[in-house]
Each structure stands twice: as C-alpha cells, then as structure tokens.
Amino acid sequence: SGHPVAAVGADIKHCQSKGVQVLLSIGGQGGGYSLPSSQSAADVADNLWNAYLGGRRAGVPRPFGDAAVDGIDFFIDQGGADHYDELARQLHGRGVALTATVRCSYPDSRLQKALATGLLGRIHVRIFGDNQCTMSPLDAWEKWAAAYPRCTVFLTVVASPEQDEGYMFQKDLYYGVQQFIDKEPNYGGIAIWDRYYDK
Predict the structure, then answer these.
(1) Of 18, 59, 86, 139, which one has the greatest count of Cβ atoms within 10 A?
(2) Residue 117 pLDDT level (bands cut at 50, 70, 90)
C-alpha cells in the first residue's frame, strides 16, 4: 500500500506470544486483481511464503521483518475465481493455515473452488456489503455452516457506523442471529472488520 509497515512485525510477535493467531488477508475490496494462470498461483504462493510466512529467500523483501504470520485469509472480492484452489493447495502443502472471508449470500462464486479443496479451516461470513444478506443474515449464515460442517464459521460484522448500513443491524445481532447460531457445532464466534474503524 506504499506506507511503512515494519513496526507491524513487533505487533505480530506480541499477539502470537499471547496465543493469538495472526493471518494476512489477501485480495480485498480495492483495485482489480486475479490469478490468470497456474503459474501465477505458484508465483503468488512462493512470494507469500518468502515475504510473509516461514520462507526466507535472498532478494525477497519481508515487510514485517523477521515476523511471520500464521496463515493466509482469502478475501477475494474482485476478478475471477480461477486458480485460487491451486493457490490454496500450494500454501497448504507448506503447512500454512488457510481461511476465507466470503460474501454473505451463499455461495460465493469467487471462492467456491478454493473452498471445495477442503483445505480452508475457517470461514468468515460478512453480513455487510450485501443488501440481500442484510435482510436475512441468519438464513445466510446457516447455509454456510451447513455447506461446510468441517469448517469453523464466524459471523463477521462491521465496526463503524460510518462504514456500512449493516452496522445499524448490529443492535439486534444477539436477538436476530447470535442466539440461534452460538450453539451450532461449527460456530466460531464474531469477527469484526476492521480494527482501524473499531478504534
């Protein structure tokens, strides 16, 4: 993103020392991106491994210094769906923890192939940024949980009223959604997007 992030390395290590897993989310809402080929998936896996994870290759910059994140979160909100399954296999083969941040409406076409590998252990279901889902988030969450019973499924909310109309829904979060899902065997908890707005 162009701004210095070296100090984040100390934060990563601090969280890990407290038993908190730290993931690097790839993709996101800004700009266009895609994996146009199998080779590009292999190249991205190699770069992630050497720049942010356990690898060390001369000439590959490490933005967080010697800190290594624990895994990669697939937040694929742009472009096509091709080759993310291959990226997941490449990373999983190196022992990397994998998660997915998906659109609320089931299924998420951009992540279907990656999720079908069975290699992603957690799914963060965003109940914001999707008008269809904001109206019936319980139904959407239940579809995700039923489709991926071996995954831990989180309910992902937005932290700031300035960010999304979905924030207004959160006052009814417990009564409308959480009391129905928190006893499900693969319910993982609530994920909050993002810390910048939370603060």
Answers:
(1) 86
(2) very high
In the predicted structure, residue 160 carries a pLDDT above the cut 60: yes
Three-class SS of residue 80? coil
* Closest by CA position to 48, among listed 25, 14, 29, 28: 25
Closest by Cα among 19, 13, 21, 14 to 152: 21
Cis-peptide, bond into residue 11, ω within 30° of zero: no
Nearest to 144 by CA among 108, 182, 98: 108
Helices (H), 18-147: 38-51, 84-92, 112-116, 131-135, 137-147
Classify residue 150 by burial, with Cβ atoms within 10 Å: 0-12, 13-18, 19+.
Answer: exposed
CB atoms within 10 A of CB 197: 15
Q: Is the pLDDT of residue 119 over 90?
A: yes
State the chain's mean pLDDT as an integer: 90
Q: Which residues pair with 190 in a beta bridge?
A: 155
Q: How far is the C-alpha of 156 from the C-alpha of 160, rounded, in Å?
A: 13
Q: How far apart are CA 124 and CA 157, in angstroms?
A: 10
**DSSP annotation of 38:** H
